Structure formats: C-alpha cells, structure tokens
Amino acid sequence: MKVGILTFPHAPSLGAMLQMGALYHVIEEMGHDVAVINYVSDKVNHKKTRTITPKTILIEMLSKCFLKSAKPSYQEFEQKLKMYPSQVVSSTEQMSELSEGLDRIIVGSDQVWNPVVTGHDLNFYLEFCSEPEKKASYAASFGYMQADPEYEEKISELLKDFAFLSVREKDGQDIVKSLTGRKAELVLDPTLLVSADYLKGEMEPCHRKKKYVLFFCIKPSVGLREKAEQYADKYGYELVTVGGRIKERFDPRKHPEYGVGPKEFLGLINGAQCVFTNSFHGMAISVALHRDFFVEFSSDTNSRLVNLTEMLGMENRVVRDKTPLEEKIDYTHADEVLQRERKVSMQYLEKVLQ
Question: Are residues 181 and 221 in the same domain?
C-alpha cells in the first residue's frame, strides 16, 4: 500500500521531526511504501513573531558567526525519509493531484489541527482529497481545549469524511465527539510507539566529560530553570541547556549546547542524569529512553502532558511549587502501560492499512 504522511516536513522543531521519523519508521516496518507528503503551507507558523530592531539584527549576525547551526542536522535526519513529491508543494490543487497516487493519507501526529500552528489551513483536515476511504489521522492534536468556533462547521464536515480517526489526547477525543458524534481512537504519540533501540540507532551519543542535568523548555520558565540549577548543584552535576543566549556561549559557568538537531537531542537526553522540561516530546523521549525527569505544565502544553503523566502514573514527576521527590523512576508500571497502549495503537494502524 502506498501511504502518505501529512505532517510538518522541514519544520525547525525537534518534536515535529522526531514524531515524523517515528511514524514513518513504524509504517515502513509494517511493509508499506511510505513517504512524507512534501507540503509546506504559507499559513503554517512554527516560530514566534518578534520585533525586528538593530539589537535583534546584531544578535542574529553574531549568532551566525559564533553559534553552531542545527540546520544541517535537521536536513540529515530528513534525508533518510522519502519525500513525495521530491519538490515542495504548497497549493491545494497540487495536493489534490498527488493524492490520486496514494492509497492512504495519514495526517499526524503532532499539532496538525492546532489553528495557531496551521493558520487554519484546512488541507490538514484533508480538504484536498475527495476520496473518504483514503482519509485517516494518527495521534492528531488540536493543541487546545476546543476547536476554533469560527471554523467548527467546516471542520465538522471534513472530519466526518474521514474513514479512520485517532487523536493523541482525551481533549481531542472530546472535540471530535462534539463535532462529529464519532469516538476517535486514543493512540500513542509515534515517539512512544517505537522501541528504545530505534531511538538509540538514530542518536548521536553525547560525550560530555562530566555528568549533567539537561534543561529543555519550549516555553521560557525561570522557575523550572532555578529548580534544575538547584538539583544540579545538589549532586555536583553540570546544567546543560539546549540552546541559549549568545552571551552564554562565552560564560564558563554555563553549558549551552548549540546546533542541536534530532540526533543530538536524543543523545543529550540519553546521557543525562535527569531531564527538566515543559515539552511534551522532552518528556516522551525521556520516558522512551528510561531517563529520570521532572516536567512542568505550561498553558501551551497542559492537555497533552496531563494525559501522558496520568496515563503512566507519573504525577509525582510534575514540578509545581517545589521539586517533587528526587527518587529514581521505577519504569516497571510505565512499561506495562506502554506495552498495552502500543498494542492498541498498532491495531489501529493495522486497521487503517489493511
């Protein structure tokens, strides 16, 4: 079966890259001819807007001179995946034409139905495809507690046209139910569907001389950083951050890692004594690689992180007013849960790809 994955190719996002690669790997292992649909929408925005000033221009110039770029690592990761077509497409007409050459179109995972990310691009609801039997989602996420009211009627119409529906969070199930009357399957994010051996095979091992705590946040958090610093100081570890301001590059007390793409990110998590994060994929990869971690909920990540911590019974790893108990994680229960949920997720994919 020829399968196209509609997600966010070429995105400057570690989570977007890793989930895309993981879903691709799983479908390929199932024996199908899989490709990532090479769709880049002008509406999609993965970067926060910022004011352009002489200062920001200077910082950008200095960064290019002194900081390692992650772009080559992202490109190397994507080169392992087949793109369909080989050149980027960006219009609904082009998408409609290429859909004719596919047996199934799977949209997901990640926040493919988050209007803040997609800019209300309805192609992510497969508007371009006129054949319902080809339409499926895998672990799609709205990113928010409800669909955009302005687009509810159209989204409802498009979702009802899907032959197969699955989401990543319970809130997503509720949204689909309210819009279509259907119960979407709840499945694992692809990064939790693959084996640790697969992830380790994709990583660039970290060779830092000293033991370290890893700090990775997609939303700034002074409080979480302070807790990570306190933890590192208590045990005599270095505090390593993914990225950082340019002045930290020249501060011997700081330990930023620049040029971090998917393979370096996996290596950093795998080598860490503990991970402090408010990122869904920061936690997901930590779980997949059996690392100790602490997670902080933020307004942008609550739904998916709450679901994941509750499912795995890891509420005691959530940082609130203070750092929780610093005991090592016993992954026995979490592994049992993941084994069960992987079976459910794989059964769903097998049904989609019959």
Answer: no
Across the chain, mean pLDDT equals: 91
260 with 184, same domain?
Answer: no
Matching residue, tokens 């949209």: 107
Backbone angles phi, psi at 105, to 5 degrees: -120, 120
- Please indicate, yes or no, whether residues 45 and 76 belong to a single structural domain of this protein: yes
pLDDT tens digits for range 131-173 = 999 999 999 998 766 667 889 999 999 999 999 999 999 999 9
In SS3 terms, 22-71 reads as HHHHHHHHCCCEEEEEEECCCCCCCCCCCCCCHHHHHHHHHHHHHCCCCH
Report the distance separating Cα 161 and Cα 39, nearest Å. Answer: 21
Q: Record the tokens describing residue 325, joined without a space.
A: 């108990």
Domain shared by 187 and 220, yes or no: no
Nearest alpha-carbon partner for 137 in 83, 103, 187: 187
Query: Which residue type occupies 253?
Result: R
Domain that holds residue 69: 2-194+340-352
Q: How far apart are CA 12 and CA 77, in angstroms?
A: 12
Q: What is the DSSP letter of 164?
A: B
Peptide bond into 141 cis (omega under 30): no
- Same domain? For 310 and 258 the reply is yes
Total number of domains in the chain: 2
292: left (phi > 0), else alpha (psi -120 to 50), else beta?
beta
The pTM score is 0.92
Residue 244 confidence (pLDDT): 74
Q: How many CB atoms lie within 10 A of CB 48?
A: 6
Q: Length of the chain in residues, anyone?
A: 354
Residue spans of beta strands (DSSP E) within 279-332? 293-295
Q: How far is CA 247 from CA 46, 50, 62, 63, in A?
A: 25, 19, 10, 10
Closest C-alpha among 84, 85, 136 to residue 109: 136
Tell me if 187 sits within 8 A of 138, measured CB to CB: yes
